[in-house]
Amino acid sequence: EMAENASTVFNVHVPEFVDAIWVALRDPTLAVREKAVEALRACLCVIEKRETRWRVQ
Questions:
Q1: For residue 43, what are the domain limits?
Q2: What string of DSSP letters covers 15-48?
Q3: What is the pLDDT along the chain (57 residues), one digit of tens a residue?
Q4: Of 14, 30, 37, 43, which residue has the fewest beta carbons closer than 10 angstroms?
């Protein structure tokens, strides 16, 4: 939700999010993996829409 509702704030935390999401993506529980996929999808949408100056970093 933070990625979608506060994308400017979230942009600063993208590297940490990407590092942390891998644990959930490998979780043995299907529901956890599905939510992780939703979160990663939202993150990637935010990255796609952000300004060019953020993409360089």
A1: 2-55
A2: HHHHHHHHHHHT-S-HHHHHHHHHHHHHHHHHHH
A3: 555 555 566 677 788 888 999 999 999 999 999 999 999 998 888 787 766 555 555
A4: 30
Q: Which two tokens stand for residue 38?
A: 């939703």
Burial (CB count <10 Å: 0-12, 13-18, 19+), residue 57: exposed
- Token pair of 16 as six digits: 């940490």
Query: How many structural domains are present in the chain?
Result: 1
